[in-house]
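We treat protein structure as text, and this decision shapes the records that our systems exchange. We quote a single record here, exactly as it is kept in our systems:
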Amino acid sequence: MNARTEPQLLGHLSNAHLDALEEETIFILREVAASFERPTLLFSGGKDSLVMLRCAEKAFGVGRIPYPLLMIDTGHNFKEVTDFRDQRAKELGAQLIVRSVEDSMARGTVRLAHPGESRNVHQSVTLLEAIEEFRFDALIGGARRDEEKARAKERIFSHRDSFGQWQPKAQRPELWTLFNTRLAPGEHFRVFPISNWTELDVWQYIERENIALPSIYYAHQREVVERKGLLVPVTELTPPKDGEQIVTRTVRFRTVGDITCTCPVESPATDAAGVVLETLTVEVSERGATRMDDKTSDASMEKRKKDGYF
């Protein structure tokens, strides 16, 4: 094989892999539309949900996504992401439903242990309230199995009981891509169309499809402090602790979430191609490398999922 044909073949193989993942995702998105009466697509403005939106556009046609978008807002999200979320929903002509943890706090259904507590885990309550309000029977999420051990246990169509809880030992088999979508009153499904994608797949697809993302996914200057092996962004919500030195670093976010628990990583990558090259060499998952709330056993992902988390 000569030097000219080898890159062409590698490119063809990469596209074939992405084509297969895209095809599976489109199939699942169409299955949801055909099987449920009131589905919704969870949309944070993050990279995974934007990949799903691109696949949804291909599944149903531009401007014809048949379910609304739902965002559970902690009130502590990065403004770059929420602004991008609103802009993208407007461009799609899609209905965007936003429900806030702050509203749950006002109702008394969420109570913080102290004012500085992260609201991230409390999204479960607000999500279950939104499900009851709109009677959603399927929620499409962007979780992937490579992100975290508990998420690796998920089926693509993940059943939730009438309390919104996940029972990992009582999941339904999915042999030959046959999905059991039977529901009893009050139950619902969480559906994960990009379960089989990896972080690398997502970034390769973003590069191939030229998908626009919030700016903080790419390299930018930011004040941070080093804390327990993480770079904690310096904000009003996450001020430095005594003895910590504020430094300015060139960073990007691998994942975006609540400001109080999401950290950037050092990176010079200014575009998707640069992120792809970096992702080829990483050894720690994006959540393991950037999420403060996943590092404590009492806030483990599996427990949170059993309580109704995404």
Residues 257 and 273 are 23 Å apart (CA to CA).
